[in-house]
Design brief:
The chain has a five-stranded parallel β-sheet, sandwiched between helices. It is built from eight helices and eleven strands. The chain is an alpha/beta fold and about 230 residues long. Helix 7 packs across helix 8. It folds into two domains: about 120 residues, Response regulator (Rossmann fold), CATH 3.40.50; about 90 residues, Winged helix-like DNA-binding domain superfamily/Winged helix DNA-binding domain (Arc Repressor Mutant, subunit A, Orthogonal Bundle), CATH 1.10.10. About 40% of the residues lie in helices and about 20% in strands. About 5% of the residues have low confidence.
Length: about 230
């Protein structure tokens, strides 16, 4: 049995039972909730490693709950489930603070693979660690490239899985302009589109920039993409 604990929130009891059984059979501890209120009660008692959350629930919906949890500083991976699978809906989920978005109906195997990827927080397309410096400075912040951890004068800076993955991709080639297409491919966002990259960049700037509207480190290169320029 894995030590990793998944909270699944959906107003469909049948789907909850299916996912609880499937994820348990694949080694995870699983808690469930039927709505946002019940999810908050569970989160007050435990600290899960990831959250699988239905968007279209009665009462407080999944987007609102995601937004609220992010404002409260919760940094665990959040994967949204919804019958609305259009790119605009997925981007809305990312803007709310989710790390991933899976349209219904879906294969449980795909959910499992996405969860594993986010729980590992693997940064794709990185060069070998020995080709990179151990850390990069972003003003008062320091990013540990090998561990994927960002810290500042007051301690760790909590990043979502998507934010950490994006920062890892950018720090793999500091000073190099990376196209939106290349970043989307590295982050496995091809099917959502390059607009999703812009959303993640906006979120990351809120973490690393003193003034996200006047970025010092994460720059937009018009018509080309983004470049990270570390410094003090």
């Amino acid at each position: 049995m894995s030590d990793e604990h998944i909270l699944v929130v959906d107003d469909d009891p049948r789907l909850l039972r299916l996912l609880q059984r499937y994820l348990s059979e694949n080694g995870y501890r699983v808690s469930t909730a039927l709505d946002a209120g019940s999810a908050r009660e569970v989160l007050a008692r435990i600290q899960p490693d990831a959250l699988v959350l239905d968007v279209t629930m009665p009462g407080e919906d999944g987007l609102s709950l995601t937004n609220s949890l992010r404002r409260d500083g919760l940094s665990l991976p959040i994967l949204l489930l919804t019958a609305r699978g259009e790119p605009a809906d997925r981007i809305g989920g990312l803007e709310a603070g989710a790390d991933d978005y899976l349209g219904k109906p879906f294969e449980p195997r795909e959910l499992l693979l996405r969860l594993r990827a986010h729980l590992r927080r693997v940064v794709p397309s990185l060069p070998a660690v020995n080709e990179l410096p151990e850390t990069l400075r972003l003003g008062e912040l320091e990013f540990d490239i090998k561990r994927g951890l960002l810290s500042g004068p007051e301690g760790p800076v909590h990043l979502t899985g998507g934010e950490a993955a994006l920062l890892g991709v950018l720090t793999s080639q500091p000073g190099t302009v990376l196209s939106r297409e290349a970043i989307a491919r590295a982050l496995d966002m091809d099917e959502i589109g390059e607009r999703a990259v812009d959303v993640q960049v906006t979120r990351l700037r809120r973490r690393i920039e003193v003034d996200p509207k006047e970025p010092r480190f994460l720059h937009t290169v018009r018509g080309k993409g983004y470049v990270l320029k570390p410094g003090r």
